[in-house]
Design goal:
This protein has 114 residues and is mostly beta strands. 0% of the residues lie in helices and 53% in strands. Strand 9 and strand 10 form a beta hairpin.
Length: 114
């Protein structure tokens, strides 16, 4: 089982990034997918959730209207499109696959700074 995040980096406030989470070793289309983030000194927080079929999504209030979660079950990949980024979005972002089991990626750093 493997989840590999990519797409993080340094971006200026107001900019955009698209994170990807490539899955292998399990039936991706049967799992809900979630993105979490953890800033230094803070607890890990849930950012966005998407159901196994992609028909249902939910977002933290802090990112609603700016972030979009999506998935491509044929490519076994989940995405997080992040627009209008703010310095407070700076964190390590993790993807998580959830069903009866839960799998985590290694994380990708997102830094929003001028």
């Amino acid at each position: 089982v493997q989840l590999v995040e990519s797409g993080g980096g340094l971006v200026q406030p107001g900019g955009s990034l698209r994170l990807s989470c490539a899955a292998s070793g399990f039936t991706f289309s049967s799992y809900a997918m979630r993105w979490f983030r953890q800033a230094p000194g803070k607890e890990r927080e849930l950012v966005a959730h998407i159901s196994s079929t992609g028909g249902n999504t939910n977002y933290a209030d802090s990112v609603k209207g700016r972030f979009t979660i999506s998935r491509d079950n044929a490519k076994k990949t989940a995405y997080l499109q992040m627009n209008s980024l703010k310095p407070e979005d700076t964190a390590v972002y993790y993807c998580n696959a959830l069903r009866a089991s839960s799998y985590w990626g290694q994380g990708t750093q997102v830094t929003v700074s001028s």
